[in-house]
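Async update (no meeting this week)

Hi team, since we skipped the sync, here's where things stand on the single-chain job. The sequence we agreed to prioritize is pasted below, unchanged from the tracker. I ran it this morning and attached the output directly underneath so nobody has to dig for it. Comments welcome in thread, and please keep replies under the output.
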Amino acid sequence: MATIIAVANQKGGVAKTTTVHSLAEALSDLGKRVLMVDLDPQACLTYATGTDPESLRSTIHDVFMGRASISDVIIRRGDAPDLAPSSIDLAGSEIHLLTKTGREFVLKRAMKDISDDYDIVLVDCGPSLGILTVNALTAADTVLIPFQAETLSDRGVGQLLETIGDVQGYTNEDLSVLGGVATMFDTRTRLGKKVLADVREIHGLNVIEPPIPRSVRVAEAPGEGISVLTHAKHSRPAEAYRELATNLVELL
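Output:
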């Protein structure tokens, strides 16, 4: 049965999508059967894999609307991790769900159809704490929190942990927090090191090693429709994501 990991942080620009894409590739290289779920209406993960959302007949939006099962929308990618893609239409799902009973459980119910097909499912949450993110947290076994080592991102971690507490109280009492991942990390700054220490001390969050270093190679990869592990496989970020994947498997 698949372990479902929600990759979440309501603050934008903290490399959630990059982390999902890179970790999925690294976990696949370790022999894991991996599914990526794009739960962001901006469809950044879908674009990053070289897929044009506008060309797709169905996406995860259709799953939320009850028009398709998740197995119907998954793009099988051979040796690469599979993808349940998104599109801008997903923004309409939130409005649709507001009037529905049990709206927090739509993704959880959908995932039952494919839970035996994968070892790990990584859910890329959008930069909000809305109903789509709550769906991800309700469906997930655990949460991975990418954060940039700066003051505002540190504040966002605290807000997300409050939401996780609410979800544990109402829709998913078994949800755990796997830990945090420091992204775009600059070892030369005192602020970065201070934020890492604060996240550990103030929030009690396990920060999984290693931090992912800042690099232009990471920013280049989505434009090529590939992850940094393929775009610059010997770069420091690629090596860091491979090490992170190994450490993550040990924690599961």
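Quick observations from my side:
The chain has twelve helices and six strands.
The chain has one domain: 3-251.
Reply here if anything looks off.
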